[in-house]
Amino acid sequence: MGEVLTIENDATTLRVTQEGGVRRIAMARPPANALSLEFMGQLTKAFEEAAGDEGVRVVVLASDAKVFCAGHDLKEMQAARQEADQGRAFFEKTFLRCSDLMQTIVKLRVPVIAEVNGVATAAGCQLVASCDLAIASEEARFATPGVNIGLFCSTPMVALSRNVHRKHAMEMLLTGEMTEPTHAREIGLINRVVPKEYLGQVVQKYAETIASKSSFTLKLGKEAFYQQTEMPLSDAYDYAARVMVQNMMAKDSEEGIGAFVEKRTPQWKDE
């Protein structure tokens, strides 16, 4: 285990640290890490700062509260109804900022791992689904419960439906019921379920394993993964073939294949 560095950050609702190439962004807005308009802006900025730091190879999104994230700040949204437009402008700004946050995670040049301990509901579940990988403790729970309060989880639906089978997604969206972590793993929302006491250790192991790879290769591959999923099959193969050629022409591909043939550890140039 290397030295853990605390990253200077203006947001008191985030605790950002780094160990080696692993940047950890921990939400710290108790009791539920509710996604207020300001908090979503702080999270987006933290991810953008990670993207701009060449020393960052993997990002872990975690929580320092008992709840991972309970979704939007409903008290803030209700208060906006007092405006002359009954809150329409505020609602538009809120959901656009939420969409920007989720897309920032997907488009980030490095992989993002969700470390989930506790409840992740509505836009909190959307956060988990937007990350590239998700590891959860046995105490984690997932739900898109908007239907219970007359607000269908339409934006969480976008990320959810791109991670799990549509019938499982519709079940979560229509019932609003909590999903146990083992079932969340079975339907593809998360990768693994581990005991709470080992959660951080397992996530760190995943992060360090990924961080040891060529960052150029990971960036290229992550972008290609999300691009091809939205294409028809023949277009996806044509696109992926072009990406493979681009990858083969890179220095890290030459080094990696050479190291494999010569039975040695590759020395990445990240280009």
UniProtKB/TrEMBL annotation:
It holds the Pfam family ECH_1. CDD domains: crotonase-like. One of its GO terms (biological process) is fatty acid metabolic process. Keywords: Fatty acid metabolism, Lipid metabolism, Lyase, Transit peptide. GO terms for molecular function: hydro-lyase activity. May play a role in fatty acid biosynthesis and insulin sensitivity. Belongs to the enoyl-CoA hydratase/isomerase family. This is Enoyl-CoA hydratase domain-containing protein 3, mitochondrial. It comes from Notoacmeibacter ruber.
